[in-house]
Amino acid sequence: MVGAKIFDILANESFARFAQNFEYDELLSVIPLDDNTDNGYSHTAILAKAMKSDIFLPLYGSMRAKNKVKYAGQTLEFRQNNPRNFVFKGSKYPVILLDDIITTGTTLLEAKKAVINAGVEVLFALTLADARE
Hints:
Blueprint: H1 2-13, H2 15-21, E1 28-32, H3 43-51, E2 56-58, E3 63-65, H4 76-81, E4 86-88, E5 95-102, H5 106-117, E6 122-130
Parallel strand pairs: 1-2, 1-5, 5-6
Antiparallel strand pairs: 3-4
Helix pairs in contact: 1-3, 2-3
């Protein structure tokens, strides 16, 4: 559970500060990508919780992967051949996608497609880290 505490600190030093300084005229949905708790806690749920404010509404469990394949250490080709197959439950507000790390960008692009296919606007995505070379 040390990891959850570290994520909480990182979330408060980054995502919470972003939320405090971001202005928008309407409510926005924060969509943590696949916020399951298979490992005891959800990285993306912790990040989303830090953003909760007057304009940011975290929608936990709204984006789920049907394919639970692990991407850690895998190539772009592997990721493209094994999509997450996201199911998006929907939102009545514009969406900000939230993930912990960008490695190739395929997860965010697939999530964006799921939101757009549901007829909802994606404003942008936020991540804690960018590991692309």
